[in-house]
Specification:
single chain, alpha/beta, binds NADP nicotinamide-adenine-dinucleotide phosphate, two-stranded parallel ribbon, Rossmann fold
Length: 299
Amino acid sequence: MTILIVGASGQLGRELLRQSQRFQRPAQAPARDQLDITQIFQVEKAFAKFCPSIVINAAAYTDVDGAESEIEHAFDVNETGADNLAQSCAKRSIPLVHVSTDYVFDGNKGAPYVETDSIAPLSVYGRSKAEGEARIRTALPEHIIVRTSWLYSAYGRNFVTTMLTLGRQKKELSVVADQYGSPTSAVDLAEVMLQLALRILNASAIPWGTYHYSGHGITTWWEFASTIFKIASRHESLPALHLKPIATDEFPTPARRPLHSALDCGRIKRIFGIQPKPWQKSLRHVIQQIYAANHRDDR
Ligand SMILES: NC(=O)c1ccc[n+]([C@@H]2O[C@H](COP(=O)([O-])OP(=O)(O)OC[C@H]3O[C@@H](n4cnc5c(N)ncnc54)[C@H](OP(=O)(O)O)[C@@H]3O)[C@@H](O)[C@H]2O)c1
Protein backbone atom coordinates (compact mmCIF):
# COMPACT_ATOMS: atom_id res chain seq x y z
CA MET A 1 0.00 0.00 0.00
CA THR A 2 2.39 2.66 -1.19
CA ILE A 3 1.62 6.35 -0.71
CA LEU A 4 3.06 8.56 -3.44
CA ILE A 5 3.89 12.00 -2.04
CA VAL A 6 4.35 14.64 -4.72
CA GLY A 7 6.13 17.89 -3.82
CA ALA A 8 8.01 16.37 -0.87
CA SER A 9 10.69 19.09 -0.81
CA GLY A 10 8.12 21.79 0.04
CA GLN A 11 7.05 22.81 3.53
CA LEU A 12 3.97 20.57 3.53
CA GLY A 13 5.63 17.76 1.56
CA ARG A 14 8.51 17.59 3.99
CA GLU A 15 6.11 17.13 6.92
CA LEU A 16 4.10 14.54 4.98
CA LEU A 17 7.24 12.51 4.38
CA ARG A 18 8.40 12.82 7.99
CA GLN A 19 5.04 11.82 9.45
CA SER A 20 4.37 9.03 6.94
CA GLN A 21 7.19 7.11 8.64
CA ARG A 22 5.22 7.26 11.89
CA PHE A 23 2.11 6.01 10.08
CA GLN A 24 4.08 2.91 9.06
CA ARG A 25 3.11 3.05 5.41
CA PRO A 26 5.77 2.94 2.73
CA ALA A 27 5.93 6.33 1.08
CA GLN A 28 7.64 7.23 -2.16
CA ALA A 29 8.61 10.83 -2.65
CA PRO A 30 10.39 11.45 -5.95
CA ALA A 31 12.18 14.77 -6.37
CA ARG A 32 11.01 17.24 -8.99
CA ASP A 33 13.74 16.21 -11.46
CA GLN A 34 12.26 12.67 -11.38
CA LEU A 35 8.63 13.74 -11.35
CA ASP A 36 7.69 17.06 -12.90
CA ILE A 37 3.89 17.07 -12.73
CA THR A 38 3.59 19.35 -15.75
CA GLN A 39 4.96 16.48 -17.89
CA ILE A 40 2.36 13.73 -18.31
CA PHE A 41 4.96 11.19 -19.47
CA GLN A 42 6.89 11.72 -16.21
CA VAL A 43 3.70 11.31 -14.18
CA GLU A 44 2.87 8.09 -16.05
CA LYS A 45 6.43 6.82 -15.57
CA ALA A 46 6.31 7.48 -11.82
CA PHE A 47 2.93 5.75 -11.47
CA ALA A 48 4.28 2.72 -13.38
CA LYS A 49 7.40 2.63 -11.22
CA PHE A 50 5.87 3.12 -7.77
CA CYS A 51 2.39 1.53 -8.26
CA PRO A 52 0.85 3.78 -5.57
CA SER A 53 -2.36 2.90 -3.74
CA ILE A 54 -2.98 6.60 -3.11
CA VAL A 55 -1.43 9.90 -4.21
CA ILE A 56 -1.00 12.97 -2.02
CA ASN A 57 -0.21 16.10 -3.98
CA ALA A 58 1.67 18.82 -2.10
CA ALA A 59 3.32 20.16 -5.27
CA ALA A 60 2.29 23.60 -6.46
CA TYR A 61 3.51 26.91 -7.77
CA THR A 62 3.11 28.93 -4.55
CA ASP A 63 4.73 32.31 -5.25
CA VAL A 64 1.57 34.43 -5.03
CA ASP A 65 3.21 37.64 -6.27
CA GLY A 66 5.51 35.90 -8.75
CA ALA A 67 2.49 34.28 -10.42
CA GLU A 68 1.29 37.70 -11.62
CA SER A 69 4.21 37.79 -14.07
CA GLU A 70 4.80 34.01 -14.45
CA ILE A 71 1.22 33.27 -15.45
CA GLU A 72 1.96 30.36 -17.74
CA HIS A 73 4.26 28.70 -15.23
CA ALA A 74 1.66 29.03 -12.43
CA PHE A 75 -1.10 27.49 -14.59
CA ASP A 76 1.26 24.77 -15.87
CA VAL A 77 1.90 23.52 -12.35
CA ASN A 78 -1.36 24.32 -10.58
CA GLU A 79 -3.82 23.48 -13.36
CA THR A 80 -2.08 21.16 -15.87
CA GLY A 81 0.01 19.46 -13.16
CA ALA A 82 -3.06 18.76 -11.02
CA ASP A 83 -4.91 17.50 -14.11
CA ASN A 84 -2.04 15.19 -15.09
CA LEU A 85 -2.06 13.60 -11.64
CA ALA A 86 -5.85 13.24 -11.69
CA GLN A 87 -5.81 11.68 -15.18
CA SER A 88 -3.16 9.13 -14.22
CA CYS A 89 -5.06 8.34 -11.00
CA ALA A 90 -8.33 7.93 -12.93
CA LYS A 91 -6.74 5.47 -15.38
CA ARG A 92 -5.82 3.18 -12.50
CA SER A 93 -8.68 3.97 -10.05
CA ILE A 94 -6.27 5.49 -7.52
CA PRO A 95 -7.60 8.18 -5.14
CA LEU A 96 -5.95 11.60 -4.95
CA VAL A 97 -5.66 13.86 -1.92
CA HIS A 98 -4.87 17.39 -3.11
CA VAL A 99 -4.33 20.78 -1.45
CA SER A 100 -5.87 24.07 -2.46
CA THR A 101 -6.12 27.53 -1.00
CA ASP A 102 -8.30 30.16 0.66
CA TYR A 103 -7.13 32.49 -2.17
CA VAL A 104 -9.81 30.97 -4.45
CA PHE A 105 -12.18 33.34 -2.57
CA ASP A 106 -12.35 37.13 -2.89
CA GLY A 107 -12.69 37.76 0.86
CA ASN A 108 -15.87 39.81 0.58
CA LYS A 109 -18.22 37.40 2.37
CA GLY A 110 -17.53 38.88 5.77
CA ALA A 111 -17.69 35.46 7.45
CA PRO A 112 -15.70 32.21 7.21
CA TYR A 113 -16.14 30.46 3.86
CA VAL A 114 -17.85 27.08 3.56
CA GLU A 115 -16.97 24.64 0.79
CA THR A 116 -20.08 25.44 -1.26
CA ASP A 117 -19.48 29.21 -1.36
CA SER A 118 -18.82 30.65 -4.81
CA ILE A 119 -15.20 31.14 -5.67
CA ALA A 120 -13.90 34.44 -7.11
CA PRO A 121 -10.09 34.49 -7.02
CA LEU A 122 -8.40 37.90 -7.06
CA SER A 123 -4.97 36.73 -8.23
CA VAL A 124 -3.34 34.56 -10.91
CA TYR A 125 -2.26 32.13 -8.17
CA GLY A 126 -5.85 31.88 -6.88
CA ARG A 127 -7.20 31.39 -10.43
CA SER A 128 -4.61 28.71 -11.23
CA LYS A 129 -5.44 26.81 -8.02
CA ALA A 130 -9.19 27.11 -8.74
CA GLU A 131 -8.64 25.69 -12.24
CA GLY A 132 -6.61 22.84 -10.73
CA GLU A 133 -9.52 22.02 -8.41
CA ALA A 134 -11.94 22.04 -11.35
CA ARG A 135 -9.75 19.73 -13.44
CA ILE A 136 -9.51 17.22 -10.59
CA ARG A 137 -13.29 17.23 -10.04
CA THR A 138 -13.85 16.54 -13.75
CA ALA A 139 -11.21 13.82 -14.16
CA LEU A 140 -11.48 11.88 -10.92
CA PRO A 141 -14.51 11.36 -8.65
CA GLU A 142 -12.28 9.69 -6.03
CA HIS A 143 -10.59 12.85 -4.82
CA ILE A 144 -10.34 14.87 -1.67
CA ILE A 145 -9.35 18.52 -2.05
CA VAL A 146 -8.33 20.19 1.20
CA ARG A 147 -8.37 23.98 1.05
CA THR A 148 -6.08 25.55 3.61
CA SER A 149 -4.73 29.00 4.47
CA TRP A 150 -1.64 30.90 5.67
CA LEU A 151 0.52 27.78 5.69
CA TYR A 152 3.84 27.85 7.57
CA SER A 153 6.42 25.42 8.91
CA ALA A 154 9.81 25.38 10.59
CA TYR A 155 11.51 24.98 7.21
CA GLY A 156 11.85 27.02 4.04
CA ARG A 157 10.59 30.54 3.42
CA ASN A 158 7.24 31.35 4.96
CA PHE A 159 5.76 34.09 7.14
CA VAL A 160 7.14 32.69 10.41
CA THR A 161 10.71 32.12 9.22
CA THR A 162 10.71 35.46 7.36
CA MET A 163 9.48 37.38 10.44
CA LEU A 164 12.16 35.77 12.63
CA THR A 165 14.89 36.70 10.13
CA LEU A 166 13.65 40.30 9.78
CA GLY A 167 13.12 40.64 13.52
CA ARG A 168 16.84 40.05 14.08
CA GLN A 169 17.81 42.66 11.46
CA LYS A 170 15.34 45.55 11.82
CA LYS A 171 14.26 48.03 14.45
CA GLU A 172 10.86 48.63 12.87
CA LEU A 173 8.70 46.31 10.81
CA SER A 174 5.41 47.24 9.11
CA VAL A 175 2.88 44.42 8.90
CA VAL A 176 -0.57 44.43 7.33
CA ALA A 177 -3.29 44.57 9.99
CA ASP A 178 -6.47 44.57 7.91
CA GLN A 179 -6.27 41.12 6.28
CA TYR A 180 -7.95 38.40 8.32
CA GLY A 181 -7.33 34.66 8.11
CA SER A 182 -6.22 31.55 9.93
CA PRO A 183 -2.58 30.46 10.15
CA THR A 184 -2.11 26.74 9.52
CA SER A 185 0.87 24.71 10.61
CA ALA A 186 2.21 22.27 8.00
CA VAL A 187 2.66 19.78 10.86
CA ASP A 188 -1.09 19.81 11.54
CA LEU A 189 -2.10 19.81 7.86
CA ALA A 190 0.23 16.88 7.05
CA GLU A 191 -1.26 14.91 9.94
CA VAL A 192 -4.77 15.60 8.64
CA MET A 193 -3.87 14.61 5.09
CA LEU A 194 -2.30 11.36 6.22
CA GLN A 195 -5.31 10.62 8.43
CA LEU A 196 -7.53 11.14 5.39
CA ALA A 197 -5.29 8.92 3.27
CA LEU A 198 -5.46 6.12 5.87
CA ARG A 199 -9.24 6.44 6.09
CA ILE A 200 -9.44 6.15 2.32
CA LEU A 201 -7.18 3.08 2.28
CA ASN A 202 -9.07 1.37 5.12
CA ALA A 203 -12.72 2.29 4.51
CA SER A 204 -15.07 1.47 1.68
CA ALA A 205 -17.48 4.43 1.61
CA ILE A 206 -15.65 7.75 1.46
CA PRO A 207 -17.48 11.07 1.16
CA TRP A 208 -15.27 12.42 -1.64
CA GLY A 209 -15.13 16.12 -2.38
CA THR A 210 -13.82 19.41 -1.06
CA TYR A 211 -13.04 20.19 2.58
CA HIS A 212 -11.65 23.15 4.49
CA TYR A 213 -8.92 22.76 7.09
CA SER A 214 -6.96 25.54 8.80
CA GLY A 215 -5.76 26.44 12.27
CA HIS A 216 -8.59 27.31 14.67
CA GLY A 217 -9.15 31.01 15.24
CA ILE A 218 -9.00 34.13 13.09
CA THR A 219 -6.26 36.74 13.21
CA THR A 220 -4.44 39.37 11.15
CA TRP A 221 -0.91 39.22 9.74
CA TRP A 222 0.06 41.88 12.33
CA GLU A 223 -1.27 39.87 15.28
CA PHE A 224 0.30 36.72 13.81
CA ALA A 225 3.67 38.54 13.65
CA SER A 226 3.42 39.90 17.18
CA THR A 227 2.56 36.42 18.50
CA ILE A 228 5.58 34.99 16.65
CA PHE A 229 7.87 37.50 18.38
CA LYS A 230 6.24 36.96 21.76
CA ILE A 231 6.84 33.20 21.54
CA ALA A 232 10.33 33.57 20.01
CA SER A 233 11.42 35.88 22.81
CA ARG A 234 11.09 32.91 25.20
CA HIS A 235 13.80 31.14 23.19
CA GLU A 236 16.08 34.00 22.16
CA SER A 237 16.78 37.55 23.27
CA LEU A 238 15.58 39.53 20.25
CA PRO A 239 16.51 43.21 19.71
CA ALA A 240 13.77 45.76 20.52
CA LEU A 241 11.41 45.93 17.58
CA HIS A 242 8.54 48.25 16.76
CA LEU A 243 5.87 46.27 14.95
CA LYS A 244 3.85 48.83 13.05
CA PRO A 245 0.31 47.89 11.96
CA ILE A 246 -0.44 49.12 8.43
CA ALA A 247 -3.32 48.88 5.95
CA THR A 248 -3.15 46.73 2.80
CA ASP A 249 -3.13 49.94 0.70
CA GLU A 250 0.11 51.03 2.37
CA PHE A 251 1.88 47.82 1.27
CA PRO A 252 1.18 47.41 -2.43
CA THR A 253 1.96 43.95 -3.83
CA PRO A 254 1.69 42.60 -7.41
CA ALA A 255 -1.10 40.18 -6.38
CA ARG A 256 -4.35 41.25 -4.70
CA ARG A 257 -5.19 39.23 -1.62
CA PRO A 258 -8.58 38.61 -0.01
CA LEU A 259 -9.22 40.79 3.04
CA HIS A 260 -11.14 38.13 4.95
CA SER A 261 -10.36 34.58 3.84
CA ALA A 262 -10.97 32.51 6.97
CA LEU A 263 -12.30 29.03 6.23
CA ASP A 264 -15.20 27.34 8.01
CA CYS A 265 -13.87 23.88 8.94
CA GLY A 266 -17.20 22.44 10.10
CA ARG A 267 -17.51 19.88 7.28
CA ILE A 268 -14.22 18.06 7.91
CA LYS A 269 -15.13 17.96 11.61
CA ARG A 270 -18.65 16.61 10.99
CA ILE A 271 -17.64 14.02 8.41
CA PHE A 272 -14.17 12.90 9.50
CA GLY A 273 -14.13 14.03 13.16
CA ILE A 274 -11.09 16.21 12.44
CA GLN A 275 -10.88 19.15 14.83
CA PRO A 276 -8.62 22.10 13.92
CA LYS A 277 -6.10 23.06 16.62
CA PRO A 278 -5.86 26.61 18.01
CA TRP A 279 -3.40 28.46 15.75
CA GLN A 280 -1.41 29.87 18.72
CA LYS A 281 -0.79 26.39 20.13
CA SER A 282 0.45 25.07 16.78
CA LEU A 283 2.63 28.14 16.33
CA ARG A 284 4.30 27.47 19.69
CA HIS A 285 5.08 23.93 18.54
CA VAL A 286 6.62 25.07 15.22
CA ILE A 287 8.72 27.78 16.88
CA GLN A 288 9.98 25.15 19.30
CA GLN A 289 10.94 23.01 16.28
CA ILE A 290 12.83 25.97 14.78
CA TYR A 291 14.87 26.59 17.94
CA ALA A 292 15.49 22.88 18.47
CA ALA A 293 16.88 22.65 14.91
CA ASN A 294 19.04 25.78 15.46
CA HIS A 295 20.34 24.26 18.67
CA ARG A 296 21.27 21.04 16.83
CA ASP A 297 23.00 23.10 14.08
CA ASP A 298 25.02 25.00 16.73
CA ARG A 299 26.47 21.81 18.19
N1 LIG B 1 2.10 28.50 1.45
C1 LIG B 1 0.88 28.93 1.78
O1 LIG B 1 0.70 29.91 2.52
C2 LIG B 1 -0.34 28.17 1.31
C3 LIG B 1 -1.62 28.64 1.67
C4 LIG B 1 -2.72 27.93 1.22
C5 LIG B 1 -2.57 26.79 0.45
N2 LIG B 1 -1.33 26.38 0.09
C6 LIG B 1 -1.19 25.16 -0.73
O2 LIG B 1 -0.55 24.17 0.06
C7 LIG B 1 0.19 23.30 -0.78
C8 LIG B 1 1.61 23.13 -0.24
O3 LIG B 1 2.23 24.42 -0.22
P1 LIG B 1 3.70 24.65 0.34
O4 LIG B 1 3.71 25.97 0.96
O5 LIG B 1 4.15 23.44 1.09
O6 LIG B 1 4.51 24.74 -1.03
P2 LIG B 1 6.08 24.94 -1.24
O7 LIG B 1 6.81 24.92 0.04
O8 LIG B 1 6.24 26.10 -2.17
O9 LIG B 1 6.46 23.60 -2.02
C9 LIG B 1 6.00 23.37 -3.30
C10 LIG B 1 6.49 22.02 -3.74
O10 LIG B 1 6.03 21.82 -5.09
C11 LIG B 1 7.11 21.34 -5.86
N3 LIG B 1 6.91 21.65 -7.28
C12 LIG B 1 6.79 22.86 -7.85
N4 LIG B 1 6.61 22.72 -9.18
C13 LIG B 1 6.60 21.37 -9.43
C14 LIG B 1 6.47 20.58 -10.58
N5 LIG B 1 6.31 21.13 -11.79
N6 LIG B 1 6.50 19.24 -10.46
C15 LIG B 1 6.69 18.66 -9.25
N7 LIG B 1 6.84 19.36 -8.11
C16 LIG B 1 6.79 20.69 -8.21
C17 LIG B 1 8.33 22.04 -5.27
O11 LIG B 1 9.51 21.40 -5.68
P3 LIG B 1 10.93 22.18 -5.69
O12 LIG B 1 11.38 22.18 -4.27
O13 LIG B 1 11.77 21.35 -6.59
O14 LIG B 1 10.65 23.55 -6.22
C18 LIG B 1 8.02 21.86 -3.79
O15 LIG B 1 8.35 20.57 -3.37
C19 LIG B 1 0.09 23.90 -2.18
O16 LIG B 1 -0.91 23.24 -2.90
C20 LIG B 1 -0.31 25.33 -1.95
O17 LIG B 1 -1.00 25.88 -3.05
C21 LIG B 1 -0.20 27.03 0.51
